Amino acid sequence: MDLADEGDGGGWVIGPDSQRRWGLFGAAGLLLRAPSPDDPADPLVLLQHRAKWTASGDTWALPGGAIDSGETPAEAAARETFEEAGIPVGAVRVRGERVTSRMSGVPRPRTRIGSLLHDGSLPDGMSRSRSIEWTYTTVFADLPEPLDTVANHESVELRWVRESEVAGFDLMPAFAAVWPSLRMRPVSCVVDVANVLGSRSNGWWRDRAGYTSALLGDLAAAVPCALAPDSTSDAGGSWLARTTVVVEGAAKKAESPASLVRVDASGEGDDTIVDVASAELASAGPGNVLVVTSDRGLRDRLPAGISVLGSGGFLSRLGLK
Fold this sequence. Notes:
Helix content: 10-25%
Order of helices and strands: EEEEEEHEEEEEHEHHEEEHEHEH
CATH superfamily of the largest domain: Nucleoside Triphosphate Pyrophosphohydrolase
Number of domains: 2
Protein name: Putative 8-oxo-dGTP diphosphatase 3
Keywords: Hydrolase
Number of helices: 7
Domain Nudix hydrolase: 23-186
CATH topology of the largest domain: Nucleoside Triphosphate Pyrophosphohydrolase
Structural class: alpha/beta
CATH architecture of the largest domain: Alpha-Beta Complex
Number of strands: 17
Low-confidence stretches: 113-127
Mean pLDDT: 89
GO molecular function: hydrolase activity
Cofactor: Mg(2+)
Strand content: 25-35%
Largest sheet: 7 strands, mixed
């Protein structure tokens, strides 16, 4: 293979404490989830049983590897997962990412331009730091369903494992250390459909029922799924295990997929949302219910223990904006 076609991120870096890390430009792994067919609250996680010759071999971890220059962590993690597990890059729905390991004082790597190595120096006497911070990024992603895998030479086995059972495997030490913070909380999601529909400027007011049908179809195709935390959070995010949509007014003529729990409001939609969310809270407990709305008045009426996410943010995080 021509050098120009090879990735330039492969290689070890050595920090001030003489510890080695793989990936000249850092590394990334894909924390890939898919719904479990018999327990929506306990999603499946794709684990890789690493070949003995690899670093920390004969342990279980996430598929992933070195990031190439000019490549984002998400791109690298998806590419590596295709190479190591055969999961198509286009099937992966990336939800977010978090740096889960750092090492400072790493010598700045040289990048390859064609067949030449470039050390990153600047012209005209300008200075550039000779050291960087090496990072490992965990990329949160999911699939609509677990896909078949094809292992390459770096894997003994690939296996879809229930999230609740991951800790019982002989995990790579670095992965074992961060896994508790990466676990997702299963939540029951209650969607204020009228408010979410109103956040879209697509002409929905011309055909409320028709556009509601399209919205519900989009939601059904997206859930169950992961809602990853922001990059600064210590929590693992939420897994939307059950989604209830509250529909009101003319939108009640809309069609909805069977995978969604649908409640048609007999009166005011906000009253029904409060009732449904309160019932979910009594069943699931505090911290396990999420209401999707940007209506401040409705937010103020919700009981304590219920989380709220704005409609626009919800659509963006599901890739539906």
